[in-house]
Design brief:
The complex is a heterotrimer. By secondary structure, chain B is mainly alpha-helical. Chain B has 22 helices and five strands. Chain B has three domains: 10-218, no CATH class; 279-315, no CATH class; 320-557, MetI-like (MetI-like fold), CATH 1.10.3720. In chain B, helix 12 runs antiparallel to helix 19. Classes of the chains: A alpha+beta, B mainly alpha, C alpha+beta. The structure holds adenosine-5'-diphosphate and magnesium ion.
Chain lengths: 411, 562, 398
């Protein structure tokens, strides 16, 4: 579009353009941001409202800050109590407390030290029980109250001023939260499947996916190089017919092949085995076209020169053509990688997903993250693990993508 | 001094002797073929599955005939004999080699290899890094005009790879695998296969030689054909075995009732297709009549009200028809949603303003990220109580007067009315970036002069887009529309993950043809019927593909789609 | 080293006319043979048949004593230099030159020695470790040569090896190749469409047209005794002027006086020196008929530079005068239809202007003259050097 224009109107258009682009970019990136942050959250953290992009943990401060030694102590706030602003460290979660209820307002609870309050000597009858009346301190004023319960609770020390402390029931306080990613999500999701340790067995699926992807890509590269070379450069009888059949084959959607392939796998006993994900996919008509196209673009004279140099066809292929075809091979490898890594339908059909030894990532994730999903944080850790390699590969191999997407028929 | 002054050659088998050996081997092959034919036809059904048995018989006959021809021709030194012998031996080598690997458990052993790899993942990663290092070091060196510099860097890489390999082998502990192979290879059948593989392999190698070609007087074009087929063979064999063969088989199966497991299979002609496509329309007096007004075996698909008359449309396979309806709605919504943004964005990205490459890369990411992960993420976004979508709508409602958020979070995925729409959103989000890149390729074929001329004529941005960009991208648009449609028609993964409470839910609101097929074939039990569904779907998709091929032929200039 | 023999060789591509038609040619051992002809005449096809890169449709090809029709290229022991050099882009100069040896499994140190010798000979030593893309055109060309000579083949084949170089470098490389071939003594088949190259380089030159061999001869002979109209028109630069002319022979009055032969065309009339009749005796039988009169540009001179009779002066109107320094080319048009053989203008392949009405002629005169456009010029003609051809067959009137 018109880029070369100048002037305020053009500048305005340009600004609008960038705003539009950025908005779309945010729409694209935001779900990934959600995924990444969720993968670092605690599971309880995910189902809070409003949703947040920040993984949090309960705050603690070093024990030394409140004059203790030992483990860090948790920090709380009292959002409902205007008289207790700021952050409070829970230095003793098991302090002996007493709950007092003022006689003029039996609904209120005053939590004090178990030794607090002075018996007035009077008694009062509550719910048919006779109780002693105490004079207790209620925020500076002395009120008459009875002791409704002896319990244990927390001794809180103000973080800002460690000399101030209060006693209260722990569940009257709200844990203070701060930024805190949970890295264990990743180790747990990768760990061997085990309800005890909460391991999800994604590690094994990852290994399998890596294995399958590498072998599929290698297979595709080799068969495509050989086939593409034959189609491009060897004049043999039946070449155009076979090529036409190959061309036609890309019109067949994979759905049509699912059932017969499944039957074939049953016959050779490859069901529920990784090999079923590899060998049938080591042959690709698209890859063959890609390589053929590239080989056609290499000047015939280079090959003829090699022929005259006494090289055999296979020497020419491996020593002359293949080194020259590196960009095409990189393209092929990238597409093959993405295809193999992300494929889902076929693994779903052929692999019994109950058995993590044979499952690939997409399959394991679909089981983990499916309708009966628990441990959403772990599911997202797995998702992030599964997405990172293809995105990295894409970013590194972008050049090949952008050049070849149109002709690759990735879709 | 020509090239001939090479060192002394290793002595080779004399051509005549070799040829006679090969001929003798072919005679052995004839005998073996007959024997295996007899064995196969006499073995009981329980020993061999029927399909395998048939395969063995056909194969044996073919092998016998080929061997016979090869043996005769080779003895008589006929010109074509070398070709026949080579093809026979090569195919035999491939088959026996595969059989050998099968017997040794090499194929199914990949799973066990996975176990080893899992144990030794760390050294494996080191190997990968080392190899990448070697490759990258090579690339960097090759970039310089003075190539072949010091390759100490590379050597270090190889060293690393070697060390890691040792580590890998120790960590992966292949002893179990090796001992299994050792056990199996000593079995007589395996040894026999090994012998066949070795003999046919050796015969192929021998006959392939140039001097043997001279001996038989092979013509240059014959030689070309042989080497062409040799190069193509790995591809072609795989293609036939895993594509062409299954394709034919699928067509056959679609005319059978073919149980997924067990042996129930019977020929039913076109019944499967009839069942899939049968519809029945009947009028009724009551507004919501049930199945009883339809022919037996039909179920209500929908109720219609035409001119005061109530109609009931029924189908034998209601779910399939619903899936067709769903996919039509999906197509109508999802295709424009993933193509129109691409058209607009590509026009901006094509302008070569700074930063366009970054945006291009960002937009592309969803299409490479993997559909399962994407669906899982969107499942969370669509969550009705704590999902971001509802939250953002709520927040938008606070700022923008015209957005009227529902009081409670909307259950996007479990509401009949929005479930399919949610799938549209995910699909469009995943695919618009890819389409943008396709469009960018199209942009490259628009002559820059057109824009310059428009600039001079003072056309504004909208006019340029409307009058130049869009018409010039017509062919690309067509290609993008078709490929996106084909993709949309095969919608499965997103639905599989996102639909709730069961795949295709709620109330079949998101059932798609592929899902129906999957359930029929792998959760139901009739692969014959499922195959018929697959072919119906294929015909629909083929319509689109065919249109695309026609277009590509007509418009050779279609942008970037060569 | 070996001879190369074409025996009735033909080549027909699929659904095309014959690219090479019944070629008989013997290239002797150690000879520098140039195949020349306009583009598309089948030179490359002929060369590629020697190389084994094209199948031979018909006939027998020998290298030395061996019939090589069915021998694959790599076994023919020949080396070829291509127009675009066809260097392996991913290999260094050293690897490029050594590739053939490497394929033949020659020992490493031997390869190195021979590659370095070849590089030394071609002045490539300091570029041995560069990739082709880091070389200039001339250097690439030399690498291609190095790749050929390192193998010490029986025959060198070169297909327009200089046409991608600029003019100055071309002249330089031309003499380098000549010297190289002379030194190595290897049989050379050299294809070019440039007749200057052909004339300067070849021991013998084979002129081809539309797949048919027209003439094989040493350069000077081609120039002096072209075998037909096509060769006459093709060899020489600027090309020979060919004019359709009427012949009149006037019987000599004296007894041993030779007859007077005149050619007339477009209102001009020239008396032909009797010496020309010695070379073209067939002209005597042509009284009153049309012939094609061939006159090389260099056979003109300004009237004042050459003493000739009045009836050997041609007066023409100068349409264009190109001053080239040493010489001036005077372009003019003679008012006769341009000659044609088989209905097609002879030089059409090279010169689309040949289609203009009237026959274009060029005269080359000494550079000291200043000639204005539109000026009438009186030119003396060296009629004893002129050529005569039969207008129907194009054959010389010998
Ligand atoms: N591979 C081919 N297929 C068909 N025709 C060809 C092929 N190569 C050359 N020709 C035709 O053969 C004729 C001679 O070509 P060539 O030998 O390349 O001519 P040149 O003398 O210019 O080198 C031309 O008419 C050309 O069109
Ligand atoms: Mg040529």
């Amino acid at each position: 579009m018109s880029v070369r224009r100048k002037g305020p109107k053009a500048t305005a258009i340009r600004i609008i353009t960038y705003v539009l682009l950025v908005v779309v970019a945010v729409v694209v990136v935001f779900p990934f941001a959600v995924a990444v942050t969720t993968s670092f959250k605690r599971n309880t953290d995910i189902f809070t409202y409003p949703p947040s992009l920040i993984p949090k943990k309960d705050s603690t401060i070093p024990a030394a800050d409140v004059g203790l030694d030992g483990d860090p102590v948790p920090v709380f706030t009292f959002p409902a109590r205007d008289d207790r602003p700021g952050r409070w460290a829970l230095v003793d979660a098991d302090a002996s407390l007493a709950e007092f209820r003022p006689l003029d307002d039996l609904e209120r609870v005053i939590v004090l030290d178990v030794k607090a309050g002075e018996k007035t000597g009077a008694t009062v009858t509550i719910d048919g029980e006779e109780e002693d009346v105490f004079l207790v301190d209620d925020g500076g004023t002395q009120v008459e109250a009875y002791r409704s319960r002896l319990t244990s609770g927390g001794l809180f020390v103000s973080v800002d001023d460690p000399s101030t402390s209060v006693l209260d029931l722990v569940n009257f306080a709200t844990p203070a939260r701060e930024f805190g990613p949970r890295f264990a999500n990743f180790t747990e999701v990768l760990a061997e499947k085990d309800p005890e340790t909460n391991g999800k067995g994604v590690g094994r699926s990852l290994t399998n996916t890596v294995l399958v992807t590498i072998l599929v890509v290698l297979g595709q590269i080799i068969t495509s190089i050989l086939g593409g070379y034959a189609f491009a450069r060897v004049q043999f009888k039946g070449r155009s017919t076979i090529f036409l059949v190959y061309l036609g084959s890309v019109m067949i959607p994979f759905v049509v092949l699912i059932i017969p392939l499944f039957q074939l796998m049953l016959q050779v006993n490859w069901r529920d085995n990784l090999v079923a994900l590899i060998i049938p996919f080591a042959f690709t008509a698209y890859g063959t076209f890609l390589m053929r196209q590239f080989f056609l673009g290499i000047p015939a004279e280079i090959e003829e020169a090699a022929l005259l140099d006494g090289a055999s066809r296979s020497t020419i292929l491996w020593k002359v053509m293949v080194p020259l075809a590196r960009p095409a091979i990189a393209t092929l490898a990238t597409f093959g990688f993405l295809y193999a890594w992300n494929s889902f339908f076929w693994p779903l059909v052929i692999i019994n997903s109950g058995n993590p030894d044979n499952a690939v990532l997409s399959l394991t994730l679909s089981t983990l993250g499916g309708r009966s999903s628990t441990d959403t944080n772990l599911v997202f850790a797995g998702t992030v693990l599964a997405m990172t390699p293809p995105i990295l590969v894409f970013l590194f191999a972008q050049r090949y993508f952008v050049e070849n997407s149109a002709s690759s028929g990735l879709k | 001094m020509g090239l001939r002054d090479r060192g002394p050659r290793t002595p080779r088998v004399a051509v005549d002797t070799g040829v006679q050996l090969v001929a003798a081997w072919h005679l052995v092959g004839v005998a073996a073929g007959i024997v295996s034919m007899l064995l196969a036809s006499r073995s009981g059904d329980d020993a061999l599955p029927a399909v395998i048995k048939l395969f063995v018989q056909v194969f044996s006959i073919a092998v016998t005939v080929a061997h016979l021809a090869a043996a005769y021709g080779t003895f008589r030194r006929m010109r074509r004999a070398r070709t026949v012998s080579l093809v026979t031996n090569y195919l035999l080598f491939v088959v026996s080699g595969s059989a050998l690997l099968h017997q040794l458990g090499a194929f199914t052993g990949i799973g066990k290899f996975g176990t080893g790899l899992n144990k030794a993942f760390l050294p494996f990663m080191v190997i990968v890094v080392g190899l990448l290092w070697v490759l990258v070091a090579g690339q960097l060196l090759a970039k310089k005009p003075l190539a072949a510099g010091p390759n100490g860097l590379r050597r270090a890489g190889w060293g690393l790879v070697a060390l890691a390999s040792v580590w890998f082998v120790i960590a992966a502990d292949p002893s179990g695998m090796l001992s299994m192979i050792g056990d199996r290879i000593t079995q007589p059948l395996t040894l026999g296969t090994l012998a066949v593989a070795l003999c046919s392999g050796a015969a192929t190698r021998f006959m392939w030689q140039r001097r043997v070609a001279v001996h038989f007087g092979t013509s240059a074009s014959e030689e070309q054909t042989l080497s062409g087929l040799a190069f193509l063979s790995p591809n072609l064999i795989g293609f036939s075995f895993f594509f062409a063969g299954p394709l034919l088989f699928s067509l056959v199966v679609s005319f059978f009732e073919w149980k997924t497991t067990g042996t129930g299979r019977s020929f039913v002609g076109i019944d499967n297709y009839v069942r899939a496509l049968s519809l029945d329309l009947s009028s009724s007096d009551v507004a919501n009549a049930g199945n009883e007004v339809l022919k037996p075996g039909y179920q209500v698909l929908m109720h219609l009200d035409w001119f005061g008359q109530n109609w009931v449309l029924g189908a034998r396979d209601v779910e399939f028809w619903i899936s067709l309806r769903n996919i039509t709605i999906f197509l109508v919504l999802a295709v424009p949603a993933s193509v129109l943004p691409a058209l607009v964005l590509s026009s901006i990205l094509a302008s070569r303003l700074p930063g366009m490459k970054v945006f291009r890369a960002i937009y592309f990411i969803p299409s490479v990220a993997g559909v399962i992960g994407v669906a899982i993420i969107w499942g969370q976004l669509f969550q009705s109580t704590v999902g971001w979508i509802n939250y953002l709508i709520l927040r938008a409602g606070e700022i923008l007067p015209f957005v009227d958020p529902p009081a409670e979070g909307h259950p996007w995925l479990s509401s009949n009315s929005t479930a399919l729409l949610s799938m549209v959103v995910v699909f469009a989000w995943m695919n618009f970036g890819f389409n943008t890149v396709l469009y960018l390729a199209g942009h490259q074929s628009i002559p820059k002069e057109l824009y310059e001329a428009a600039d001079i004529d003072g056309a504004n941005v909208w006019q340029v887009f409307r009058r130049i960009t869009v018409p010039q991208l017509r062919n690309t648009t067509f290609y993008v529309l078709i490929t996106t449609s084909i993709l949309a028609l095969q919608l499965f993964d997103i639905v599989w993950i996102l639909s709730t409470p069961e795949p295709g839910g709620p109330n079949n609101a998101t059932t798609t043809p592929v899902l129906a097929l999957y359930e029929e074939a792998f959760q139901g039990n009739d692969q014959g019927y499922a195959s018929a569904l697959a072919w119906v779907l294929f015909l629909i998709i083929f319509g689109f593909t065919f249109a695309q091929f026609r277009q590509q032929k007509d418009g050779a200039t279609s942008g970037g789609v060569s | 080293m070996a001879a190369v023999t074409f025996n009735n060789i033909s080549k027909r591509y699929k659904d095309g006319p014959k690219a090479v038609d019944d070629l008989n040619l013997e290239i002797t051992d150690g000879e520098f043979m140039v195949l020349v002809g306009p583009s598309g005449c089948g030179k490359s096809t002929a060369l590629r048949m020697i190389a084994g890169l094209e199948e031979i449709s018909d006939g027998e090809l020998r290298i030395g004593e061996r019939v090589v029709n069915e021998v694959p290229p790599g076994d023919r022991d020949i080396a070829m230099v291509f127009q675009n050099y066809a260097l392996y882009p991913h290999m260094t100069v050293r690897q490029n030159i050594g590739f053939a040896l490497e394929v033949a499994k020659v020992r490493k140190d031997e390869i190195n020695r021979r590659v370095e010798d070849a590089a030394e000979m071609l002045g490539l030593t300091e570029y041995l470790d560069r990739l082709p893309k880091a070389l200039s055109g001339g250097q690439r060309q030399r690498v291609a040569m190095g790749r050929a000579i390192v193998r010490s083949p029986q025959v060198f084949l070169m297909d327009e090896p200089l046409s991608n170089l600029d003019a100055k470098l071309r002249v330089q490389m031309r003499s380098d190749i000549i010297q190289l071939q002379a030194r190595l003594g290897t049989t050379m088949v050299y294809v070019t469409h440039d007749q200057v190259e052909a004339m300067t380089m070849g021991h013998r030159v084979a002129v081809m047209r539309k797949g048919v061999l027209q003439q094989v001869a040493p350069p000077q002979e081609l120039y002096l005794r072209p075998a037909n109209l096509f060769v006459a028109a093709f060899i020489g630069s600027p090309a020979m002027n060919l004019i359709t002319a009427d012949v009149t022979i006037e019987k000599a009055t004296g007894g041993d006086q030779p007859d007077d032969v005149f050619v007339s065309f477009g209102g001009h009339r020239l008396r032909i020196s009797p010496k020309a009749l010695d070379r073209y005796p067939g002209l005597r039988e042509r009284n009153g008929t049309k012939v094609i009169f061939g006159l090389r540009p260099e056979h003109f001179a300004m009237e004042e530079d050459l003493e000739v009779g009045d009836d050997q002066i041609l007066t023409i109107r100068c349409d264009l005068a190109e001053a080239m320094g040493a010489e001036v080319h005077i372009h003019a048009v003679i008012d006769v239809p341009p000659p044609a053989v088989d209905g097609a203008p002879i030089a059409a392949e090279d010169d689309p202007e040949a289609l203009v009405a009237g026959t274009k002629v060029i005269a080359r005169v000494d550079g000291i003259h200043t000639i204005a456009m539109g000026q009438d010029v009186r030119l003396a003609v060296k009629t004893h050097l002129t050529h005569f051809f039969d207008p129907a067959s194009g054959a010389p009137l010998r």
